[in-house]
Amino acid sequence: MRHTTEIELANLEDVALANRGVIAPEEVRRVTIEDALVDTGATRLCLPKPIIEQLGLRPFGNARARTAAGIVNRTIYSEVRFTILEREGSLPITDLPADAPVLVGHMVLEQLDLCLDIRKGLIYNPDHGDDWIEDAW
After folding, report:
1. Can you list the positions of beta strands (E) in 20-58?
2. I need a surface site. Which of 14, 24, 32, 137 has the fewest CB within 10 A?
């Protein structure tokens, strides 16, 4: 069964500049994706290249990734601030081809203490009620 969620994305560097008053808050590059695919087989938050370009993210590394098509090389980009179900986090981004959906991987779910329920879709971790319990770093 396919589960999707709304995710708000913002360039984390822009957010920091806006917080320091260097740029106006409306200058922060943002995008909202209404149908991001919750993919428990994905590790990271993965964005198609056009969205990466729209957010103005910078490449800074490479990683090998196991996909349904085999092992591929992916580019790692600077961090985004993301919001799902009113919870916020930040992570570096992995690129995807232009025609791929946004993938919300398990690192995002763990950071936000969310779970995928087969009937309800994305939910707060039922073991924690409505409390947001983060793992110690």
Report:
1. 30-38, 45-48
2. 137
